[in-house]
Amino acid sequence: MVRNAMLRRVTAAVLAAGAVTALASTPATAGPAAPSGTWRADLSTVDNDDVNVRADGGVLTLDNAAWHRTAAVTSGSEGKLLLAEHPLGGPANRVTAQVAADTPTGTAVEVDVRGRTGANDWTEWTPADQGAATFAQPVGSVQVRISLSSTTDGVRPAVRDVRLSADNAPQANAVAAGTPLTYKVYGTREGLVGGTTANGHVITSRDHFVSFPSGRSLSPKGTGNYTARVCRTDNSRCEYAPVWEVGPWNEQDDYWNPSSTRQKFKDLPQGKPEAQAAYQDNYNGGKSGLGYKVQNPAGIDLADGVFWDGLKMSDNGWVNVTYLWTGSGPTGVVTTAGDPMNVRASASTSAAVKGLAANHAKVTIECYVEGDTVTGKFGTSNIWDRIGPGHYVSDTYLQTGSDSPVAPKCA
Predict the structure, then answer these.
(1) Beta-bridge partner residues of 320
(2) CA dist., res. 252 & res. 213, Å (int)
(3) Which of 208, 201, 248 is nearest to 228 (CA)?
(4) 285-291 long-range contacts, CB within 8 A, separation 24+
């Protein structure tokens, strides 16, 4: 069953009518800033990373105030501006945003930030305009995402200024990263071919991505910064796929996080989606956080290629999901001509196929072995990387930033 795409709209942060408190009016600038300093978001440039927004004289607004990402959305509009990475003058663990915007009734503006913690690693997206966004560890640079939404065709919010500041806050004991979190959740097929995902990707036939009910794990278009390993419950088939969509049922339910950092539904057990609690336990009167009657307990949506080809599912059902960005270790980005690559049971091109790894997926490299020689995107090699239990891919299709193995040899 394909879930109603209305549930993906950015409606969770609808602001009251009127204007957000204005900041001093000065031109938008970009560039390095000290951790305790401030900088302004550049609202004057829109490119192909952005979704349905335009800049009118430095004021950001919706490009088409009646644009619907899928046919199931019948009113209102939404858009996103993804800013360039902003280097800080030194490490910082807290970012605050002040927004000057006109927000007519039924419209909303939300500012989320994430920080780079390593060459290929990012924190999750965290709201910075509703109190400071605090990261578990210091970051050296910050990226900003500005989301605009409207529930009524033709009605637009307008963002005139976004000022950001980064500093260091007292730090609670940080949880050491290690093995990524895994939970068993109910998966539904996404469908909606021809529609547009929350990051601007146009959905194709047999597409390969997944969706979680929170924007905190949304990868920018054409990237797999946030990637999930999704497996049948017997682990007979798995796919590694990037997170390109928001949903099902909710948009602020990062249920894999502990209550201390979970954005909403903090009284639910870690790993239990709100939709599952609503469906099984009548939590919130059986409704989602957006007020919809929950028709299934879904905690993940699977694009058709993941559903049919990666997992070979024939109906919605329970799956084991590993949220790879919650772990640590060396990583590589799957880089192919576009199609997903086979994941093998051993380092051989004739070994059993255990599933797929989608283009752009960012996978953890546990260790490496020597096997069949393969010519791929990054040359010719007999090195194979183990990316999960009994899951091997040729190193020639992983962008790791090194010509040598980045993980130890498998024992």
Answers:
(1) 184, 231
(2) 6
(3) 208
(4) 288/7, 288/249, 288/250, 289/12, 289/249, 289/250, 289/251, 289/252, 289/253, 289/264, 289/265, 290/7, 290/11, 290/12, 290/249, 290/250, 290/251
Cα–Cα distance, 78 to 55 (Å, whole number): 15
Domains delineated in the chain: 11-167 (2.60.120), 181-326 (2.40.40.10), 331-399 (2.30.30.40)
Q: Give every strand in the sheet of 362-364, ordered side by side.
A: 362-364, 331-334, 398-399
Q: Tell me the C-alpha distance between 357 and 335, whole Å.
A: 10
For residues 256 and 209, give the distance between their C-alpha atoms in angstroms, rounded to a whole number.
18
CA distances from 99 to 16, 36, 317 (A): 14, 18, 42
Rounded CA separation 327/168 (Å): 24
DSSP 396: G
Nearest residue to 276 via CA among 167, 187, 207, 357: 187
Look over the chain and give the mean of its residue pLDDT values, rounded to a whole number: 90
The two three-digit tokens of residue 5, written as one number: 């795409």
Is residue 333 a contact partner of residue 242, using CB atoms and an 8 Å limit?
no
pLDDT of 82 reads 98
Within 10 A of 33 (CB to CB), how many other CB atoms are there? Answer: 21
C-alpha 212/C-alpha 283 separation (Å) is 19
Whole-prediction pTM: 0.89
Longest Cα–Cα distance of the chain, Å, equals 65
pLDDT (average), residues 143-164: 97
| pLDDT tens for each residue of 146-156 | 999 999 999 99
Q: How would residue 118 be classed by pLDDT, with cut points 50, 70 and 90?
A: confident
The DSSP bridge partners found for residue 99 are 162
| Token digits of residue 138 | 């210091």
Torsion of CA 10, 12, 17, 19, to 10 degrees: -70
Nearest CA-CA partner of 324 in 174, 125, 181: 181
Which residue's structure tokens are 């963002």?
Answer: 159
Q: Tell me the pLDDT tens digit for each residue of 196-252.
A: 999 999 999 999 999 999 999 999 999 999 999 999 999 999 999 999 999 999 999
Asked if pLDDT for residue 10 goes beyond 80, the answer is no
Measure Cα distances from 96 to 36, 120, 180, 308, 393 in Å: 11, 23, 28, 43, 41
Percent with pLDDT over 70 in the chain: 90
